[in-house]
Amino acid sequence: MQNDARTIEREAFRLLPSLLAEVLDEEHIELYQDEERRDLGIDVLADDSRGRRWAIEIKNSSRPGQVDRAAAQLVHHEDEGFIPILVVPYMSKAGAETADRRGLNWLDLSGNAHIRDEGLHIWVQGQPDRFRAVGRPSSPFAPKSARVTRTLLLDPGRWWRQKDLADATSLDDGNVSRIVRRLDEEDLLERRERELRPRDPGLLLDAWAQDYRFDRHQAVFGHLSGGGIEISRELDRRLADANVAHAFTGLPAAWAMSQFARFRLTSVYVEGDPHLVADETEMRLGEKGANVQLLGPDDDGVFAGGEEFDRLPCVAPVQVYLDLLSLPERSREAADHLRAERMDWHD
């Protein structure tokens, strides 16, 4: 099913009476519209038998930018006695996290919900996505396309012209224009005449994280003697001696940037075929119990913004953050710590 706005709105009007009645434990819920409120972003209203009044906004996507925009619109109706609720086809993990940060109630047409009010807490999860789109447009966070987002997040306060983004990312003007248009559609940018920048850098990072696939990188696993940061420093020396361009990510980068937690697995991006690089390092190959992970990046953009921390070359903090979300040990804790310490924007 194609998730265009008109199709989703029709499906919402068809499904919402029974879905709302089920989650609210009501016999029947009747929807009605108010043209004045539609002009204010409210698509439909509902009353239940307990006297609660619901103001509902329907979106065709749960991308973080759209969820955040809906929260900003719906908050104004709380003072008028309505309980705001966002309805989407299927609520993604990143969308749900954005809604929770904004205290926004939501219900998806697949049957999941998180709704809170005085004396009321409904949380339904685990229902599969009934609206998985076929032929979805290419993501603005595909490997090469993500160069635009990475560039924006490396300097989120700067206003960019599209031509400057093309120069900075080595993408052609047409590609940059298409990527920027997709980011605009997801409510992730703000404009000043012909310039642009992230509307909220944290939201942009969350949207990227939702599409990011660590397993697109080519990984070669192996073993070196030693442990933790000592292995990282030894590997750095061997790669430099072999003239292999490289930059660390994951837990060794988190340690170098903020001394967060001891670790076992050293992850490092390398230029060229990681199998050939493995031969240069003289490490013992094998995935079982490996303590080294050589990564051939899905796009050379991963090296953009990299710098040295504690004498260890590392990819940019935003790249480290994304990678930590997919790595083992205490990587999720390290990601949260890194975001708080090194990404000096306000979420």
Describe the structure.
By secondary structure, this protein is α+β, with helices and mostly antiparallel strands. It has three domains: 5-124, 3-Layer(aba) Sandwich (Trna Endonuclease, Chain: A, domain 1), CATH 3.40.1350; 146-211, Winged helix-like DNA-binding domain superfamily/Winged helix DNA-binding domain (Arc Repressor Mutant, subunit A), CATH 1.10.10; 215-342, Beta Polymerase, domain 2, CATH 3.30.460. The protein is 39% helix and 20% strand. It has 13 helices and 17 strands. The protein has helices at residues 5-23, 35-38, 64-74, 93-102, 146-154, 162-169, 173-185, 201-211, 228-241, 250-258, 274-281, 317-324, 331-342, and strands at residues 30-32, 44-47, 53-58, 82-88, 106-108, 113-117, 120-124, 160-161, 189-192, 195-198, 218-223, 246-249, 266-270, 284-285, 292-296, 307-309, 312-314. The strands form four sheets. Strands 1-2-3-4-5-6-7 form a seven-stranded mixed sheet, sandwiched between helices. Strands 12-13-15-11-14 form a five-stranded mixed sheet. A hairpin with a 4-residue loop joins strand 5 (106-108) and strand 6 (113-117). The longest helix is centred in the N-terminal third of the chain and has 19 residues, at 5-23. The protein is elongated and about 75 Å long.
Characteristics of this structure?
347 residues, alpha+beta, Trna Endonuclease, Chain: A, domain 1, Arc Repressor Mutant, subunit A, Beta Polymerase, domain 2, seven-stranded mixed beta sheet, five-stranded mixed beta sheet, 13 helices
